[in-house]
Amino acid sequence: MLKSLVYMYRLRFAETIIYMLQATEYDVKAYLRWLWRVKDFEKVSYRRSLIKTRRSSMLLLAIKLGMLVQFAVAIAWASLAIKNKEPAGIFAVDLFLSTPLVWSHLVVLPLVLARWFWVQPLNRVDVGRSKKSFQKHRAIKIAVAGSYGKTTMKEILLVVLAEGTKVAATPANKNVAISHAQFAKQLEGDEDILIVEFGEGAPGDVAGFAQTVKPDIGIITGLAPAHLDKYKTLQRAGEDIFSLAQYLDDKNVYVNGESEALKSFIKPGHQLYDGRQAAGWAIKAVKSSINGLSFEMTKDGKNLKIKSQLIGEHQIGPLALAAALADKLGLTKEQIEKGISKVESFEHRMQPRQVDGACIIDDTYNGNIDGMLAGLKLLKSLPAKRRIYVTPGLVDQGAESAKIHRRLGEAIAGSDADLVVLMKHSVTDDIVAGIKQGKFKGELKIEEDPLNFYTNLDQFVATGDLVVLQNDWPDNYN
Amino acid sequence: MNVVVNGLMTNYLKVGSGRRVIILLHGWGDSSATFADFGRRLAKNYTVLTVDLPGFGATQEPPRPWGVDDYANFVVTWLNKIGQKDVYALIGHSNGGAIAISMLGRKLIKSKKLILIASSGIRDIYKMRRVILRSGATIARLPLKILPKRTRNRIKRRAYEAIGSDYMMMPELDASFRRLVNQDMQETATHIDTPTLIIYGSADDTTPLKYGQLFKDAINQSRLEVIEGAGHMIHQEKAEKVAALSKDFLNA
Amino acid sequence: MRTVAIIFGGRSTEHDVSIITAIASVIKPLELAKQYKVEAVYIAKDGSWYWDDKLKDIQLYQSGEIDEFMRRAAKVHLLFDNGLTLVKSSQFAGRKMYKKIDIVFPAMHGTHGEDGELMGLLEMANVPYVGCDFRASTVAMDKVLAKQVTQASGIKSPSYIWFRSDQLSKPNEPLNRIKDLKYPLFVKPAHLGSSIGISRVEKESELMNALEVAVHYDDKVIIEEAVPNLIEVTLPIMGNDELRPALLEHPLTKPKDFFDFDTKYIGGGKKGGSKGKKGAQGYSEIPAKLPKELYDKAEKTALDVYRALGCSGIARVDLLIDNKAGEVYFNEVNPLPGGLYAHNWRKAGVSNVDLVTKLVTLAEQKWQAKQKLTTSFSTSYLKQF
After folding, report:
1. Tens digits of per-residue pLDDT, B106-143?
2. Does ipTM come in above 0.95?
3. Residues of chain B with C-beta less than 8 angstroms from the C-beta of C188
4. Does residue B154 share a domain with residue B220?
5. Residue of C236, C204, C252 lying closest to C132 (CA atoms)
6. Shortest CA gap C266–chain B (Å)
7. Residue C173 and residue C246 in one domain
8. What is the pTM of this model?
9. CB contact under 8 A, B3 and C197
């Protein structure tokens, strides 16, 4: 306790502050919320630390200088006051003690100012320009929206379509207006297909992106509680995502049929994709193993034999949709099958690796209940001597959190896991309640030090183990 | 393989087949492992015997500080113990070279050939430098005593490297080491009547090329080969070249 | 939370291996298991005991700072209070620190530790400890005794003779007995827990040198026939009454004596200088590729050996197989295999964390069972005196 208090009066505190800013991508609100929640600053940058950039270095220097000046002034004042026996000198102590408080807040000021007077006006100009360049571009534009699964869908499409067309896509997780504008700037002009990821953040976002990018095809990958601070309800988040469908007059819209929350938004014109069908193609002969997936898809006498390295039956839908769209866009059977086989598992998304004969499925970027359920299904379906499931639970689930985590707990109980390791967090009790309700028979462990667990995973596993790691908690949720 | 020689547990290795037997002697602070590559090349045509000298590798330390002659006596006793009477060639690297010179110069053993690789055993050309450094070291050692042992050893090692002899220090053997650096083998070398090949690297600063020239002058039937650019661990750096030179010489 | 003390190091040629076993294979997983408080107790080469959290860091030994540490650190006292308590003086005004130990995890190899000496001490303290008790350890660590005991249970060993080192001063008698054995022979010190001092002898002229080497290390020497068509295998086993074998392991590195340059210096030989066991890790076949029948026979033999010697907790049984004759011979037992043979257990489906926690549990069960035995009762003997 004392130690963590003292920590705030060391210059290292400045680094922690800047690290927190950086980790929240200089989002002032998120930063402040985090700041007020932290109890022990010494532990904040335990798992990762500050990356030196020009911005972070400048801020760091400024805040360090500021703290030093305040310390110095306070000490000078105090010593003067003692010398002159001035009782008001007691305020010097206040001045001294308030240093970390003052500077952890003052540091936001330059950010806010810069945003208002510099970044935002510039962005508006860029976005305006990008609107024109998207309009002029001859390519077929595919928009991918949804609260999860966007990046995977986009990456699969990119790899498959690249077999027969010139295709460009927005880079990983760059999915807001300004990143679309930057993407537009880099285009060469002769692309056949553009894939643009629509990140939802606040009501009206997706509609705005659609107006700018003017997509021809829309894919809606899923709906789950995320960014509920802005949307308030799941319904409103869904409405925003489906404004993409509205823009397209509900034509050429493909919707993930496996996302429960999406179902109420689906209209007759929309085409579904899931484990059994994709845009009119029928899927059969599914084989799922630790080495990947294989299935066949047929439509109007056409037949595709799909073999993918991706793991988990929840990937069948996106793969099949990519194949269906590729067929629609004129790729040959050979090109499609080759393209699909080239899709590699994405980092931390159902990514398999071997540790001492144990198979670890790293799904730590997963952050939604549908993905969690898919992971548990996979855990149950694959052969193993011992099944281990590791998760901290989900973040940002709003009012639904307790319900969702109970459900997760029940699914865990039904997954045949022999060992469940929960990274301790506020939602742990809800998961445990669900696990108990589901009459879990295996061993349950609550781990308080996730980093220690992950770095020493090799000590916990043996040959024949199957381990699924889901949703590693980023440390700004500590 | 292990054998007890003069009460010391001795580790040695016998590799290869072939009627002719070659003995490899390693340098100070080194061990028979130094010949891993070089030895394997020779083992194709010869039986190669190599030993960890006392205090190095897996052989016990000598009971008191040993000089070159003590080591030479040890090697002879070891060969007797394992019943090795005929030796075709002696090959010594660095201090192993000095030991080989002692064995043949003092006629402790008969050998058809001798190869000296970056041999040590010349102690006078840097004498002044060494005397100065050593007296410096004696004075410097007094304040060193207050330092932690690790730091002390590190400084000592640097100092010994500066004095310039062998590759590395064995802290526990430094009394032996000091005896060795004081011993000059030139006079002994003049008694050698075995055909001798002397190999040095031109860039060797532990046992400089000059040593090779002095040994060439001292030993009657000797030839000096210089490998350009090679340093002290020449049999490792240029294993192929050194092995080729050696084989030509041994086969002749 | 109960406290487990790991005792390691010791006056043994395998001192350094013990440090690695303790830190990498016991302390680390045991701390990760988070079920016990873990204390490190280090026995220096001179036999002094130290107890400190700093001793859990391998860096301390690798950097040589251990010397500095030992110069400053207070040595440990042991307090026998129907249990074991560690006592050391703290740096503050000589105040004493006490730590009651609930379970001991010996991680020692070779003499003065693995051979039962430490276990005897722990038995006196009446504290539960991991692994074989002092009786089994003592027998297991004497190659001659181990053969005699297992032979009495009908387990085969290669033909052998043995003698005390002082008998070598009149070598005729032992040499005559050796004449009954068929060459090639192995000459081994009877007590050493590793391959140190072992020689293979092809003919009589090499015999004296080999004997000399063996008596250099030990006062008891065993000479045994080499097994033809040899496949060496080893099997880690754990358990008290109910035994769980790991997988039969076939080390692929040749025994220490017959290295060419490659295996000695480039292969596993570097580590194998003192402990072939550990160095063999990367170069072994797990499970050993044997015909099913032979595999089962070997596994059964190993389990029989474990029981015959009265092992408990964990041990590793080395066997020699004559591949052509399909015959399995007992070679020796390691009551505390290097690194616990965790690499083998992992292949058998037991993680490092599970392995150490299971061993601790087994130790407690064994101790509890022992408490039920009556060892003292009141008599009127004193009054009648």
Report:
1. 999 999 999 999 999 887 555 555 555 555 555 555 55
2. no
3. none
4. no
5. C236
6. 8
7. no
8. 0.76
9. no
